[in-house]
Write a structure and sequence with these properties.
Helix content: 25-40%
Oligomer: single chain
Radius of gyration: 20 Å
Strand order of the largest sheet: 1-8-2-3-7-4-6-5-9-10-11
Strand content: 15-25%
Mean pLDDT: 94
Low-confidence stretches: none
Length: 344
């Protein structure tokens, strides 16, 4: 199969719609990362997603939806996506506040599923992940077609793609079409929120943090503590977002004195002159994610920079972790910790 990258102009969007309506897959831009999209209610398209990504069937997919003014849980129930009767009223009110505030945007809700939702989407779980992406290209496709299952457009466990070219490097020959919508504005996958007891649980951190979720919803939001065997949502496995090479993490830059020659170094901000000179002597390849350590810029550039280092001819990789683990720093630490985890 040949894979074509096309502009996300009206002709490109129409070509993508033709593929989707024919049961084929299309890589699409979202504000988080590029997604591998197929009809969420077509079992053959869903099977193609798992095959193209080499994704195990125990890892559920996220269904992407068209934006609707005044969207609520009631709309999701009418579309036969969720079973509203399984959500207590206080949580319904909280979720509707989150929907009104954060959709369209980088927030996924994991809710009790309607029986109509295919098992391939949910990996047989009694919940389904739902998101309304903010990217105009994704919304144009969704408005003209149907709900799309769209996990990240990369091979399973590998670095998430934030450009059309990164998708091509991952999936060329496996899918017919990639819509080029430019670099992703957020650069990290969506925050995933589920129900737990009388409150909420943050199953995967992202741009939207627990404090924001609590402030908008009015409910307590706790971090997920599930064992890796309990995969309730994408991105919960211990090893994920991984480069081919081993990755070492650090927070204290004094650890860089142990650098061996020809390492790749992922940095949150520039080095001082002494460390820079030392790294140059070691033939280190640097990727500086932000000139002033701004975490929004760090998240935007993280996966693309990690991919460049992984593709270079280097002896090993190092990545700097944020000192704090709250807010966006939590999401960045989550991705890098999983990228550095031993691969099974």
């Amino acid at each position: 199969m040949s894979t074509q990258i096309v502009c996300s102009d009206p002709a490109g969007i129409e070509a993508a719609l033709s593929c989707l309506r024919a049961g084929q897959l299309v890589a699409i831009p979202t504000e988080t990362v590029y997604g591998l999209a197929g009809n969420a209610f077509e079992p053959e398209a869903l099977a193609q997603i798992f095959a193209a990504k080499e994704r195990p069937h125990f890892d559920p997919l996220i269904v992407h939806l068209s934006a609707v003014a005044g969207q609520s849980l009631g709309d999701l129930a009418q579309q036969q996506l969720i079973d509203l009767s399984q959500i207590p009223l206080p949580q319904q009110h909280a979720l509707n506040r989150l929907i009104a505030y954060f959709w369209p945007g980088p927030m996924t809700l994991v809710l009790p599923r309607h029986q109509r939702v295919p098992d391939l989407v949910t990996s047989g779980l009694d919940t389904v992940g739902l998101r309304v992406p903010a990217h105009p290209v994704a919304q144009a496709l969704l408005a003209a077609s149907f709900p799309l299952a769209a996990p990240s457009a990369n091979r399973f466990g590998r670095i998430s793609p934030t450009s059309a070219q990164a998708v091509y490097a991952e999936l060329a020959g496996r899918i017919p079409l990639i819509l080029d919508g430019g670099p992703c504005a957020v650069g990290l996958e969506s925050s995933i929120i589920g129900l737990q007891d009388q409150g909420l649980v943050l199953l995967r951190p992202g741009k939207i943090c627990a404090d924001q979720i609590e402030r908008v919803s009015g409910l307590k939001c706790v971090p997920a503590t599930a064992h890796p065997a309990e995969v309730r949502a994408p991105g919960m496995l211990k090893s994920h977002y991984a480069p081919r090479q081993d990755l070492r993490l650090f927070t204290d830059r004094s650890e860089l004195q142990a650098l061996a020659p020809r390492q790749g170094l992922l940095l949150l901000s520039p080095l001082d002159s002494a460390l820079l000179s030392f790294c140059q002597q070691k033939e280190t390849q640097l990727e500086i994610l932000s000139q002033n350590g701004d975490l929004i810029e760090v998240s935007q550039h993280l996966f693309a920079a990690l991919r460049r280092l992984d593709q270079a001819d280097l002896a090993g990789l190092w990545a700097e972790l944020p000192m704090a683990e709250a807010g966006l720093a939590h999401a960045i630490c989550d991705r890098l910790t999983k990228a550095a985890a031993p691969k099974n």
